[in-house]
Specification:
306 residues; alpha+beta; 6 helices; disordered N terminus; disordered C terminus
């Protein structure tokens, strides 16, 4: 699901990392347990069995097809919009939870996202491709160029978008990366590297083939410093034929970013495209009751005559 997140991204995701209100796709449950899951606990992957490159690529592609089938097959691939709601725990640098807001996340795939941060939709983040706006009590404002860039990068490497749209992309390489233990579960790793040298790694449960962990590894083009974002998925439930994780937790370079939980999720509801326009935010702000202007205090001396 998305890393507003839609998590904006997450979704919001990474996707340094901007801890924004935007998150994608997220879920219900005990966030104390989920917070512990945010720091990945994976043993070093075992050997890839010394496969030849072509054999390794073929095995990786086969496992990805098993993952897609486990997530729902054609029902999963056919998702074109969804709306999810839940609560999001965001973490300060100290590791303490600094916010725990409810959210409602609307997506038209692949890159239109609206996240409402209260039940009355008075605080909203909206991204549509390379545009974005926010609504709060001050009115409607443009999202910063940095926020839009972060959103577009999150969309590009989002696990679901990779599986749905990028597997046949020119320049993508595939490798089977061996068996491992992640969160006490036996997994097999599949590794993809795109033409921009971004590495995307999937840890798939060895019996269900559902994703347990997803890693995005990038390097600063100047310093070559490595950055790693880890996302953990748990408590899958079927919704309209799509196996959906009720809990998602994410960390960046070992630091917890968020832990999130779904209350509800609906797929292919034919969302109104007007929800994803700046006008929708202008209209919503216009509905807000305005404070009455305070009358100036009476003069303490007579007004000058003319």
């Amino acid at each position: 699901m998305k890393d507003v997140v839609w998590i904006k991204d997450a979704l919001r995701m990474k996707r340094g990392v901007r801890i924004s209100r935007r998150i994608a796709t997220i879920a219900l449950g005990a966030l104390a347990t989920l917070a512990l899951a945010a720091a990945p606990r994976s043993a070093r992957a075992q050997s890839d069995e010394a496969l030849m490159p072509d054999q390794s690529a073929a095995k990786a592609k086969a496992l990805l097809q098993e993952e897609i089938a486990a997530l729902g097959g054609q029902a999963y691939l056919s998702v074109h919009d969804y709306v999810c709601e839940g609560r999001l725990a965001q973490f300060a640098h100290s590791g303490e939870i600094n916010s725990y807001p409810p959210f409602k996340d609307f997506w038209i795939l692949p890159d239109e996202n609206r996240t409402e941060w209260d039940k009355k939709a008075t605080i909203v983040d909206l991204f549509v491709g390379n545009q974005g706006w926010s609504l709060d009590r001050s009115g409607v404002n443009d999202q910063s160029p940095e926020a839009i860039s972060d959103f577009r990068e999150q969309v590009k490497v989002d696990m679901d978008n990779v599986l749905r749209y990028r597997l046949n992309e020119d320049g993508m390489t595939f490798r089977y990366a061996g068996a491992d233990i992640v969160d006490l579960q036996q997994v097999e790793w599949v590794e993809l590297v795109d033409k921009d040298d971004t590495t995307m790694r999937f840890a798939l449960d060895i019996s269900t083939h559902l994703p347990v962990q997803y890693q995005v590894i990038t390097r600063n083009p100047v310093t070559r410093e490595r950055s790693e974002k880890d996302t953990l998925y748990s408590e899958y439930i079927p919704i309209a034929g799509v196996n959906t994780p009720r809990k998602i937790a994410q960390s960046q370079d070992g630091r917890q970013i968020f832990a999130a939980a779904y209350n509800d999720c609906q797929y292919n509801t034919n969302l109104d495209p007007n929800l994803f326009t700046k006008k929708s935010l202008d209209d919503r702000f216009a509905q807000e009751p305005k404070k009455k202007e305070e009358k100036p205090p009476p003069p303490t001396h007579p007004a000058p005559s003319h």
